[in-house]
Amino acid sequence: MPYHPAMPTTLRVALIQQDTLWQDQAANLARARGFVEEAARAGARVAVFPELFTVGFTMAPEPFAEPIPGSTVAAVATLSREFDLYLVGSMVEAHAPHPRNAAFVTAPDGSLLAVYRKLHPFSYGEEHLHYSGGTACPVFEVDGIPCGLQICYDLRFPEPFRALAAKGAEVVFVPANWPARRIAAWSTLLAARAIENQAAVCGVNRVGRDAMGLDYPGCSALHNCFGDVIAAGGASEGLVVGDLDLDQLRAWRERFPVLKDRRADVYPQL
Question: Structure pTM?
Fold first, then answer.
């Protein structure tokens, strides 16, 4: 997607580090309004919730599965309209033979802008037994800025990030439920995906402990196109807000054309 001079030169993003209430859709959606209101007060244009923010990383997804669009998307879209924000949510989508772990984006006018289904169910945690994987990496625009989505375990796979970059994505949002025991990998991989694709990568992780006994340390972060941390959170619930410099990103891609130097002829299977 080519750069156009009218495209914004900065983007303020709010990452919502919430302590997700286990399998309580109504309560989590009720709490969402406060987070979105706070993001709007902070001047954010985009606010991003963690993975499966209405239920937690459940391996019993069927009772919470619903279509997209459906009631969860409608509730988030209402907040987008009320606060004039782009919102990134994540939910259990109805699908056969298993539900899908899906992220979606609502626009300030309340429309459904994009849907992404997690490509790589987390087999180490048996997610693949309960969720079907997606098949596509869509690129969508936030005020003309090309963006993409990945979800949690997808971060360990460089290929979809490269596919998004090849399609022009400048910003990638990564909602997650990434546990404390592997948090070093989270921070390292967020930086790596940013560096290798000369993209801004925004990873939002939940905090607290879930019903399965897993602890989540937050550590949400905004990384610029060099992999540098623009803003980062600790282990407390709240917002992580930062400004992405898109002029810097575009200039770096132009001056140091890594993507153009790929040898796709040598690795066509990728």
Answer: 0.96
